[in-house]
């Protein structure tokens, strides 16, 4: 599909349709697309665009099912974006608080901003027919369409989780809460929650996370008390377990690999402020800027380097590490509820390629670990091929590697901890802790 320029004049629904088009037709991430669009809208409109575009991602199979029954034939070429505009209209009519009048009228008007004034009649007819035929009131007897997931992922979850698959799918489609991690080098949980109380911010605490606060409704993060002073970072509860499982100690050399945007790096420093050296490594120079910004705001001092984890000759100083956190590149299927576009950006054959890359990095980093050292393998995936099966094979192939159980139920045949989406309000995540023989 040919690139589609951003509409010359800003319009809420036209810009939203452009975002949807970029994700589904150009394979762009929602973060990248929204960033471009949101530069020209106010905060309220930006929140609406994000809610609507990501809502379409969550309900896409059902929206497309309705669209196929309402369109005589697919739109092509530079008219394709109008299909995405109609999907937005259908979402508004059935899943949003937008009035039916505005959902139809404003969506029809948006066609002009997409250089398709001649298709306004088509948009109007499709949306009116959707209402007239009451398609929303007619159940669709198709589990995959109702799941909101692509067929390959639906089946992958079915195979991995069996009787629990429906719950995993439902949680994958749920809205994720916002977790904060209190920076205990700058403040305390008590002081931070007192500041939230004073500001009227609603939250809960986690029994399993000593430094965590969970917001009970959406907030402007930058407006929360203590943001500029580095009193907290945004980090999901599952990701907050990384530093806890890694157990950094004083006077150690620690590598945080694939570190961007730096949440786990910051938590490592906060957990062991007197450690000797922390290196945050990532291959993406743009994302490393986020690490720098976050470390500056949190007032942490770490070494930040760009480099390929599988090619340490370009960045390693030759001194082995006491502990390594490998937050491996993965399918990100555990954070789909937070980034619903991921389900449409990932393809089935990506999993095999990612598993091969993970193993290559794991083998390489193992050689940089001191005898007696610890490597914590982590992914935000819920698929066994990237997680338990990966570690099973690594242990079988690596004589000087042994499992250091995180939970009591772990065995060599069933290594690591798999967290599923929604478990204790957390994202889907996997951890396995490995120790290198000192012999």
UniProtKB/TrEMBL annotation:
Domain SAM-dependent MTase RsmB/NOP-type, first and last residues per copy: 168-437
Residues that hold S-adenosyl-L-methionine according to the record: 258-264, 282, 308, 327
Annotated Gene3D superfamilies: NusB-like (1.10.940.10), Sun protein, domain 3 (3.30.70.1170), Vaccinia Virus protein VP39 (3.40.50.150)
Pfam family of the protein (one): NusB
Top-level class of the enzyme under EC nomenclature: transferase
EC annotation from Swiss-Prot or TrEMBL: 2.1.1.176
Keywords: Cytoplasm, Methyltransferase, RNA-binding, rRNA processing, S-adenosyl-L-methionine, Transferase
UniProt GO cellular component terms: cytosol
Cell location: Cytoplasm
Active-site feature positions: 380
SUPFAM superfamilies: NusB-like, S-adenosyl-L-methionine-dependent methyltransferases
Catalytic function, reaction form: cytidine(967) in 16S rRNA + S-adenosyl-L-methionine = 5-methylcytidine(967) in 16S rRNA + S-adenosyl-L-homocysteine + H(+)
Biological process according to GO: regulation of DNA-templated transcription; rRNA base methylation
GO MF annotation, one: RNA binding
Transferase as UniProt keyword: yes
Family: Belongs to the class I-like SAM-binding methyltransferase superfamily. RsmB/NOP family.
Described function: Specifically methylates the cytosine at position 967 (m5C967) of 16S rRNA.
Protein name stated in the entry: 16S rRNA (cytosine(967)-C(5))-methyltransferase
Organism: Alteromonas macleodii
Name of the coding gene: sun
